[in-house]
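pasting for ref
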Amino acid sequence: MKILHIAEMYFTKASGITSAVPPFIEAQNKVEGVSSKLLLSSGVDIPKGFNYNFEVININDIDNLNYFFNDIYKPDLVIFHGVYFMNYIKIYKILRKLNISYVVKPHCSLTEQAQKKKRVKKYISNLIFFNKFLKNAKAISFLNEGERRTSIRINPNSIIIGNGIDKIKQVDKKSKEELEIIYLGRIDFYHKGLDFLLDAIELIKDKLSNEKIKINIYGKGSETEVKKLNEIILKININNLKFKGPVYDEEKDRVFKKANILILTSRFEGLPMTILEALSYGIPCIVTPGTNVSEEINNNNAGWKTSTNPKEIANTILIAINEYKKSEDKYIKDTATLVEKKYLWNSIADMSINKYRLLLKNSM
């Protein structure tokens, strides 16, 4: 089976697409009889530090897309990652003409909350370009049931194929006197619900000051968002709340190894890689329904479900601190069990190929 993934990747280490798509392709290529490649529709070159063991094709290196898809590489199935890219419209029209099947994996961009961001622009773009693109796909590939349930339904056909993680990290989480709660993600107040999180911390700052707790915020954002974050932290004015900036690679590994609890208060997500990474390090998570994993986290003793109400987030933080102190070993064990059961890339790759084959079989 020949698969071509198409992504508008810009290769920043803070990018969820850059973290999720390459390991998915690598895992698919381990499945017998599968050849999976990547087409970069952004036209950017791969910078140093990003090395992949599969073929990557740059759209700028293709003189004639019709000829490429018909005579150079005719895939059985094309997977578009994301939605709102004009190059996708150009490519999908060629695929339709050549009768090549495709699937769209929106990575949360079709959720009702995501549609509210730049609402008018998206409404007009959908009418003119993207509704047809989505409607003519063999299926929309959601990351989980939560994303499917909260997304606009332009195409009635859908499948679920999640993100994953390579392996469970063997980390010795020795009990320590001071617990560390981390936020690790993009500094984006609306998308990531940082307004909810900071309002919650403000409500319990006196209690947190009296606890041996560190709350560290890691991430990269625009100059405006980072300035806003620093101003609010200054206003909250407690010594154990810090913004630490972005972390990558070995530094990120060290952060996860030290952390005890991760918190993500997003309004909307597909399936956040940072949660899967945290779980693989034995870190339970405090999550809102917008992460699309809140029920699963709660039902598998892998953390705590909260809401986007700052009072409830504040209360959940205090409950999590107390419960983690009592049952640290159990949380570490149960987070690893959840990853092993559902989120290893090799299993996800096998399942994805089975679903793709069924899609193609049903469309014959």
